[in-house]
Amino acid sequence: MSLDPSFVGRTYPPTAPYQVGREKIREFATAIGATEAAHHDPAAARALGHPDVVAPPTFPVLITMAASQQIVDDPALGVDYSRVVHGDQRFAYTRPVVAGDELVCVNTIEEISNRGGHAFLTTRTDVTTSAGEPVVAVWSKLVVRGES
Amino acid sequence: MELSTRTFRVTRADLVRYAGASGDFNPIHWNDRTATRVGLPGVIAHGMFTMALVGRAVTEWAGAPDAVVEFGVRFTRPVVVPDDDEGTEITVDAVVKEVTEAGLTRLDVTARCGAEKILSQARAVVRTAG
């Protein structure tokens, strides 16, 4: 498995807006055992200066993982998803995601390398509101394992 | 900042709940036949579930659910979750690497399953003032 390094720098068209729901944030927070009131109670979130319940730090991956299918499914790049392993994950937040956000993702291929029969693909997803306000930048490194 | 060790028990039921909430239904996180077919010892936790638990530790240390400014990890070792009521246990520790004048604290985080480190380069920056 090798990926074409000339794809580095390629940016894909913005994804359709994702509506962040209060119940989705509550469901996600419950699934990870996060009990802080600001994830569940709008009044508690407002007391911290947010318009509605606050998503836990890794919540944006729900949106960016779906968005980055754009890259994984790009037939010209040719990633074999059945061989993909999650290598690294990083978030840099301008502010937390909150219920009521309408978020758009722009995916960019930041790095491609091929070593030891494996391919390494680093994507950056810039998550903004549909009005263009930056919210969080999300990096994922995927390892596409070679045939052994 | 008080950085006491955080411990999280992880069972199959937790993985099923996380799969539903996150939309990540990869069968290696719930089906032993699939997991062993691709060479894993058994069903493993979603890397992002492990990272979410580490995120809980970080926000608890910071004392605020909205304090995280940066958060990154490298997944180095899978967390195998046996099909029993006990599951497995993840422990999370951290040390302060830097406190900036801008009111940010940089943490180096260690996450273990048993004696084995499951993440490397696990770092978080949290807002501690302002």
Automatic annotation (TrEMBL), chain A:
<protein>
    <recommendedName>
        <fullName>UPF0336 protein JQN83_17585</fullName>
    </recommendedName>
</protein>
<dbReference type="Pfam" id="PF13452">
    <property type="entry name" value="FAS1_DH_region"/>
</dbReference>
<comment type="similarity">
    <text>Belongs to the UPF0336 family.</text>
</comment>
<feature type="domain" description="FAS1-like dehydratase">
    <location>
        <begin position="6"/>
        <end position="137"/>
    </location>
</feature>
<dbReference type="InterPro" id="IPR039569">
    <property type="entry name" value="FAS1-like_DH_region"/>
</dbReference>
<dbReference type="InterPro" id="IPR029069">
    <property type="entry name" value="HotDog_dom_sf"/>
</dbReference>
<dbReference type="InterPro" id="IPR016709">
    <property type="entry name" value="HadA-like"/>
</dbReference>
TrEMBL record, chain B:
<protein>
    <submittedName>
        <fullName>MaoC family dehydratase N-terminal domain-containing protein</fullName>
    </submittedName>
</protein>
<feature type="domain" description="MaoC-like">
    <location>
        <begin position="6"/>
        <end position="92"/>
    </location>
</feature>
<dbReference type="InterPro" id="IPR003965">
    <property type="entry name" value="Fatty_acid_synthase"/>
</dbReference>
<dbReference type="InterPro" id="IPR029069">
    <property type="entry name" value="HotDog_dom_sf"/>
</dbReference>
<dbReference type="Pfam" id="PF01575">
    <property type="entry name" value="MaoC_dehydratas"/>
</dbReference>
<comment type="similarity">
    <text>Belongs to the enoyl-CoA hydratase/isomerase family.</text>
</comment>
<dbReference type="InterPro" id="IPR002539">
    <property type="entry name" value="MaoC-like_dom"/>
</dbReference>
